[in-house]
Amino acid sequence: MRFSTLLIQALSLTASLASAVAIEKRQSTTQVYKFSSPTSAEGIAVRSNGQLLVSFFDKAELWTIDPATKKATKLVSFEGATCSAGIAEIAPDVFAVVAGQFSFSGGNKAGSWAIWKVDFTSGTAVASVLKKVPESGFFNGLTTFDNSTILIGDASKGAVWRMDTKTGAYSIAIQDALMNPAANAGIPMGLDGLRYSNGTVWFTNVSKNSLHKVAVDATGKATGSIATIWSNTFSDDLWVGSDGSAYVATGSAGKIQKVSPDGKVSTVASVSGSTAVVLGRTEADKNTLYIATGNGLIASVKV
Ligand SMILES: *[C@@H]1O[C@H](CO)[C@@H](O)[C@H](O)[C@H]1NC(C)=O
Ligand SMILES: *[C@@H]1O[C@H](CO)[C@@H](O)[C@H](O)[C@H]1NC(C)=O
Ligand SMILES: *[C@@H]1O[C@H](CO)[C@@H](O)[C@H](O)[C@H]1NC(C)=O
Q: Could you tell me the distance, in angstroms and rounded to a whole number, from the CA of residue 177 to the centre of ligand 3?
């Protein structure tokens, strides 16, 4: 494991030296924190005070990391769940988090998934179930849509759910074959990463190595056909910056890809096993991309 990581780093270094002559800006990353248990960081978000929030595929826990002191603290254990995933801010300093029952040995338990609410407004993290969804297949991606709505990616049903964050009312907003898991997928996951920004829903199909986007109306329903940005690079979760640039974690592909507003794709960092990314929110780190990985590393890179 360690050897192969070093080898990958060496190869990446070679690649970055080689591409230094090209226009591509590919950088190595800086460690913010390294988790040992839990290990599989899956979701990452930033509070307005700059503190990071991290969820885990191998444990239903939410942790916080102070990027300045590089210290991590466990905040929440999601009761009755074994896996946690997407995180999205639904009101100032109030976050929604996906949690349910999945394990690498036992697989996914359809119907076990819920959206939890973690509220920091009292000064400490207060967790409660926002809504359990018995019709859930395999929830993973999560994104804020408007003041009172989140969109949830369902990786096994190949659907995007919408949920009212005040009432918990939910329904399917988009369902498309492009969001289905591949028939031969090891883990039955299609739609994985999910991000709404400026009238567009971006999503990845983790079993098809693809990134897509589609324009949606005010209810979250697709208004046009789904565009494919690529279909040759493993793609996990993504973040869209205020300038419209998308940053995509590519897991085993070993890099962070940027899609500029003009559609140009470039590589901004080399990192192994990335699962999710988010841009900093303070003046000091608004150009810093924080990266979660499945091997416990939380890293950062200037973009
Ligand atoms: C969000 O809520 C605020 C106040 O509750 C309101 O003023 C604003 O118009 C809302 N924005 C949207 C996009 O609905
Ligand atoms: C996502 O997976 C489904 C199921 O295999 C497939 O139909 C769809 O084409 C995939 N998406 C892409 C872009 O290939
Ligand atoms: C938002 O979308 C509009 C319409 O497509 C586009 O003109 C504008 O540049 C976009 N803004 C950002 C920040 O992406």
A: 27
Q: Domain with 71 in it: what CATH number?
A: 2.120.10.30
Give the torsion through C-alpha atoms of 106, 108, 111, 114, to 10 deg. 100
182 falls in which pLDDT band (50, 70, 90)? Answer: confident
CA of 54 from ligand 1 middle (Å) equals 28
* Cβ atoms of residues 256 and 291 within 8 Å: yes
Place 205 in a pLDDT band, splitting at 50, 70 and 90.
confident
In this prediction, residues 240-260 reach a mean pLDDT of 96
Instruction: Evaluate: CB of 260 within 6 angstroms of ligand 3.
Output: no
CA gap 128, 174 in Å, rounded: 27
Residue 198 alpha carbon, nearest atom of ligand 3:
1
Which residues span the domain enclosing 76?
A: 35-244
Residue 19 forms part of a structural domain: no
Is residue 258 a part of any domain in this protein? Answer: no
Distance 6 CA to ligand 1 centre (A): 49
Question: Residue 108: inside a domain, yes or no?
Answer: yes
Any domain includes 18: no
**Count of domains for the chain:** 1
- Please name every residue paired with 212 in a beta bridge, in sequence order, or none if there are none: 203, 228
Ligand 2: residue of 208, 210, 234 to mutate (most ligand atoms within 8 A of CB) is: 208
- Taking the whole predicted model, whether its pTM rises above 0.85 is answered as yes
